[in-house]
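Cross-check.
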Amino acid sequence: MSEPQVPQSSDKDEVNEVVDSANAALADAEAARATGADAAAVSDEPVGDATAPDPKAEAKASGVDADLAAFEEAERAFPGTFGGTFTPPPPAVETPASAPAAADAADDVAVAATAATVAYAATANTADVTETRIVAPEPVFVPPAQPQPIFVQAPEAPRERGNRGTIAGIGLLAALSFAVLLLGTALGLGALTGEVSFENIGTAVLATISGVEFWTTVVVFYLVFCILGAIINRGRWGHWVIWGLVVGLGAYGGYLLGALLAAPFWTLTASQGSALLAEHLFAPLALASFVFGRELTIWFGAWAARSGARKTVLNAEAQREYERTLEAGPQLP
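Predicted model, tokenized:
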């Protein structure tokens, strides 16, 4: 069976009061022992007159220990202070009168040890008292939900706008103009020689445009113009001015090729072919083809150069917009 718990007092004054009570009980015990010794000495002598009875002596004579009585009184005043309930002492045993001193000495040792133990226990209990605090439970950590990835399409780099398609369209207009100028030159030369007049001008026009050398010259001019435009692309007009000479030479060579195709050259010998080329090297239409090819390339080349400059500006703006988009980063829809 476990011993009852000692109530812990939070007030130090109560502990001091208990200690003072114990000290007072010890003092009373010392006084009782002294009184008992005197009473034993007096009892050996005959006493004639009866004296007043001493309460402590009566307690000693009745077999009740004065120290235990003092502790019992302190326990009743402060229950649980001395580590348990009070246990009554066993019945007193009659001891011979010759051994009161030894019993008193043993009682003194027991009382002193009990008082020291009680005082230490009270002090320790007071020191160990700690205030009980109610602490709120820590919040349970709930991991946040993982965000779902959002896929954003990366911007595509802008494609450069070329000028070759525009040059091909401009070349068609240049070839048409070249054909009109070449036809007018042929009709003018025929009018100067008397072969063309107002009566047969229609026949002369049909004969000229149906000739192989005429269309060969026009086609060669167009092809050389487009090839040069593919090389220059968005270049400046100065390139067309300089390299327009190549287009003029191409038109001149196209006229000579047309003369060979009209012969036809596969029916001619080498000497006949050389004589035919020598006859057309300085022909008026051959020289006109060179001049027209050179000049038309310069003027239509200016148009192509202007278109190329506009495409260059648009490409630069598209590139700047693309770079701004990359710097801004992905944008959520």
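Residues 12-42+53-86+94-127 form one domain. The radius of gyration is 70 Å. Passed to J.P. for a second look.
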